[in-house]
Amino acid sequence: MTVTSRTSRRPLAVFDLDNTLADTAHRQRFLERKPRDWDGFFAAAPQDPPLAEGVALAVDSARECEVVYLTGRPERYRADTLDWLAEHGLPEGRVYMRRDEDRRPARRTKLETLRRLARSREIRVLVDDDELVCDDAEREGFTVLRARWATPSTELKVAQEREGRT
């Protein structure tokens, strides 16, 4: 059996990034302005400190699962995102990002991706901080671990649901 075929049979552990693995507190100021400074918000992501609880869970999950990342970050920030994951010792894995022009709520975009992945793979767990994403995923039968280790941000929650930005 090749490494590729072994990996493809492992269940998936799906991890969100912002406020699950990466602490976005230092960049919330970009969302407190009117209009919100989305370019500034995402451009500051490479300076995010890692969230120890989330990173440890991802590393631990990689023992039994293939780790993949599911984020509402726009595709144009892929290079920064991949660099951040590598810099902080997170397991290698596919990264699913929002198309640059997609402004739908995260609970829609992420659930679409989860459904697509579940067609051919077992999803062992989704780890996410967005309560609406978690609620919808649970309603569809996915096992969810709610990432409650970051300081919640009202601005980010509004942005996730109403503005479809992260």
| Spatial shape | globular
Q: What structural category arises from helix and sheet content?
A: alpha/beta
Rg over CA atoms, rounded to whole Å, is 15 Å
Helix content: 25-40%
- Described by its quaternary structure, the protein is single chain
Quick summary:
This protein has helices at residues 3-9, 38-43, 52-61, 78-87, 106-118, 131-139, 154-163; strands at 12-15, 66-74, 95-98, 123-128, 144-146. By secondary structure, the protein is an alpha/beta fold. It has one domain: HAD superfamily/HAD-like (Rossmann fold, 3-Layer(aba) Sandwich).
Can you walk through the features of this model?
- This protein has 7 helices and 5 strands.
- Helix 5 packs parallel to helix 6.
- The N and C termini lie far apart (39 Å).
- It has a single domain, classed as HAD superfamily/HAD-like (Rossmann fold), CATH 3.40.50.
- 39% of the residues lie in helices and 16% in strands.
- The longest helix is centred in the last third of the chain and has 13 residues.
- The chain has a 5-stranded parallel beta sheet, with helices on both faces.
- The protein is an alpha/beta fold.
